[in-house]
Amino acid sequence: MSTGFSSNMTFIRRSFQRQNKVIKEAKHDNTWRDYALIFVPYLWMILFFLLPFLIIFKISLSVTEIAIPPYSPLVTFEEGAMQIILHLENYTSIFTDPDGTYIRSYLKSLQVAGLSTIFCLLIGFPIAWALATAKPALRNVMFMLIIMPSWTSLVVRIYAWMTIMKKDGLINDCLMALGIIDSPIQMLQTDFAVYVGIVYCYLPYMVLPLFSSLMKVDYSLIEAAYDLGCRPVKTFFNTLIPQTKSGIVAGSMLVFIPALGEYVIPELLGGKSSILIGRILWQEFFNNRDWPLASAVAITMLMILVIPIILFYKVERREQEKINAGK
Amino acid sequence: MQGNKKILRAIIIALALVFLYLPIATLVVYSFNESKMVTIWTEFSLRWYVTLFHNEAIIKAVVISLTIAFFTACASVVIGTLAAFVLVRVTSFRGESAFVLFITAPMVLPEVVTGLALLLLFVTLGEFIPIFADRGMFAIWIAHVTFCASYTTVVIRSRFRELDISIEEAAMDLGAGPIKVFFAIILPAIMPAEVAAFLLSFTMSMDDLVIASFVAGPESTTLPMLIFSSVRRGLSPEINALASIIVLIVSVCTFFAWLSMVRKQRRVASDLAKAKKEALLEKRKLLRGANRA
Questions:
Q1: What is the spatial distance between Cα B293 and Cα B24, in angstroms, rounded to a whole number?
Q2: Chain A residues in contact with B180 (beta carbon < 8 A)
Q3: Which residue of B has its CA nearest to A292?
Q4: Per-residue pLDDT band at A23 (split at 50, 70, 90)
Q5: Which domain holds residue B110?
Q6: Residue-wise over A129-147: b if at least 16 C-beta within 10 A, else e?
Q7: Does any domain span residue A207?
Q8: Is ipTM beyond 0.85?
Q9: Is residue A323 part of a domain?
Q10: The CATH number of the domain where B198 resides is what?
Q11: Helix (H, G, I), strand (E, B) or coil at A297
């Protein structure tokens, strides 16, 4: 009896302490220590991430000059008068270029990134499914094998495709030996090669999120749909696709966004027709040394990417809210 | 139905593996080719490996890349741990959503944009602070840490969320200071994530071509920059040899990482099995006791 009473008292005292603690924490929401912790990563990101974008925007409003650095200053002092000159030529020249080079390269980038995303989805979904439904031991091995190429250098992987897509490369040799073609096909320097390269390099980024959402799928729903006489195709679209939507969105964004600005793959595998926006930016910067125009191209590219980036950011934000809810 | 599924799965996996590994395998095979022509096989030889090790430019680039990658990995793990701690443990603070945006954005920006932005920053800062004007390894390091820190934050954060806060509270109640709690309790618990984040940022830094090309001056050529410029000039068997070595190192590292992961899973599984067995024995004892009674 007495022991029961004392343990009861301890329990009550503990819960009081807990409550006090909660109240205390609520009052002193953030201590100086918390702010000290926030300070380092915050400062780093503001200094090396936010500031650069303000600078890029500033430089996109100047014109190129033969000087060091090679662009005109925005603010000048002349005879005691402060002048701020904002040049909009870079933006107008992007949109009114007589050859339409810039507009065409933006459209081409959208096309290549969009189609590559679809191809990655079509190829990645079966792979993710096979992984998610395989036996655990096999799944471990397969998982490692699918991830491993993406740990190898990107340039090396593209170089590998260059060697097998050459006129006398492995693919042409095989096709000729099988008698499918009579003379070697030109594969390098074509859009086809660019698509192959992008799909090859970005496939793991599609498979990973798809795999993790396929692992969470409730497969009894699919069986239920079958039992109720649903056809496979309809079952697929009505049960599997809705349940893996978050994986599909995340994977597509992870492929589409970097593919839009891709430079290395179209430069090495593509020809004159695959002038993507990343290549234009590179050329303006390195070959023409027109820093303001390159900055304007970058700002315009960001404008296009705002929607997919917000989509991705929302997914991230939701993750953070989940954490906050658990705090 | 079940048999069909198995066959389908095997076909998908086989095709995926062929697609992923055929180019790499060809690359490795032709690195042992005697001929200077990359695509015509003559006979087995190690001559391209020998010339590779006498190529001073490549050795220098390897050293530069490894140094940058090591320091990048160290710094971005520290920043990532701090950021993850802030995101998981500190209650909502002013500017939190901006912070999440800063952390996610480098992951989703095209590399060309990030590279250009950082270069222009260094040029601007270089007018006031001379260390930024000299565009060497320091500049590449800063640039790499900036984009790797996002990834390390995400990796460490996901591990952090699984931690049981009551253990930290217990330690605090027993009088441990916050620093001691961090080093004695939090750090050992998030160690696997720290290691994964370190390896991830190390490889990303080793692999980066675009950002380094923008930021670096003529003196500091990293390995990917060197490979890229020689690939643009044309195929060469020396690059095959270099690529094969990279593939070998990566596959050995991945294999060991995978092995330790599998072992850990097995340990967890065997612990679970043991616990189940004990629970079963316990249950039997109880049942026996109940029967006797």
A1: 70
A2: none
A3: B120
A4: very low
A5: 55-236
A6: bbbbebeeeebbebbbbbb
A7: yes
A8: no
A9: no
A10: 1.10.3720.10
A11: helix
